[in-house]
Design a protein that fits this description.
The protein is mainly alpha-helical. About 80% of the residues lie in helices and about 0% in strands. The chain starts with a helix and ends with a helix.
Length: about 280
């Protein structure tokens, strides 16, 4: 009876610690969202989406930063996704269980956990320094490098979940391996593959460090990727550190836009993955 009571007390203690840790995480998230809503919502207006970043003391918005972020994020996903899907497909379909796949998976995990500032420094050394100037192309390459390991890992995991009898039945009909993968395996795992792409998009849309070393920033509206391009994370970094109240208000508004964009993408990805799992 004494032993049972001691085990029950230990169990209650650990359950209480789990509840406390969960409450701490949820409270931190609620405080962050409350601060963003309180500080950022007051600065949101039509001018934020229609005017360019202003000089101190002037009226303005974040149009050039929003457009720059959309361009850099779209191109980063466009370049990184095919490479990640191909790598994940090789690991799940052609190189399953081989030593080479183990090495690739290990290197991919290292790249997945690498700090984004390291990726920015790498692109700075191999692209920005030889070119002699910051550019949107370098920013796109840095973001693509962040996309590749996420898409690679999710692609491999999703393809491994596809029932083998399904692909074996298609192969038994005489279909080529590539046709089975594109028409059967990809279709069966398309929700999971799309979830990986959405999670990668959410990850890079808020990255600041790699852009500071590559695309830098631009006070004006520019879609020329051969020069510095404005982006929301870089603008937030610059404006939040400034002593000007109007710039700080725009930084909060930009942070609010990024946070809720990432939140919406993450929720959509989770819902998509949950529906697939329920089926």
């Amino acid at each position: 009876m004494t032993l049972y009571a001691a085990r029950r007390r230990r169990n209650n203690v650990w359950i209480g610690l789990c509840y406390a840790a969960t409450a701490f995480g949820l409270c931190s998230l609620c405080l962050i969202l409350f601060a963003l809503l309180f500080e950022g919502a007051s600065g949101l207006s039509l001018e934020v989406f229609t005017q360019m970043t202003p000089s101190p003391g002037s009226a303005g918005g974040l149009l050039n930063a929003i457009v720059g972020s959309l361009i850099l994020t779209f191109l980063g996903v466009l370049i990184g996704t095919p490479l990640g899907v191909l790598a994940g497909t090789y690991m799940a379909e052609y190189g399953r269980g081989t030593k080479f796949t183990l090495v690739v998976r290990f290197l991919n995990d290292i790249l997945l956990s690498a700090p984004s500032i390291v990726i920015g420094l790498f692109i700075y050394q191999v692209v920005v320094a030889p070119m002699g100037h910051f550019s949107g192309f370098a920013g796109v390459l840095a973001l693509a490098l962040l996309v590749i390991p996420i898409v690679t890992r999710t692609t491999e995991d999703m393809l491994l979940l596809v029932p083998r009898p399904l692909t074996e039945a298609a192969t038994a009909l005489g279909m080529p391996r590539s046709y089975v993968i594109t028409k059967v395996t990809y279709r069966a795992a398309r929700a999971g593959l799309l979830t990986g792409v959405l999670l990668a998009t959410a990850r890079i849309s808020g990255e600041t460090a790699p852009l500071l070393f590559t695309a830098l920033n631009n006070q004006f509206f520019s879609t020329n990727l051969n020069g510095p391009v404005a982006s929301l994370p870089a603008i937030i970094f610059q404006f939040a550190l400034s002593p000007y109240k109007d710039w700080q208000r725009l930084a909060w508004s930009g942070a609010l836009l990024i946070t809720f964009s990432v939140l919406a993408l993450s929720i959509f990805a989770r819902v998509l993955g949950t529906r697939k799992t329920a089926k």
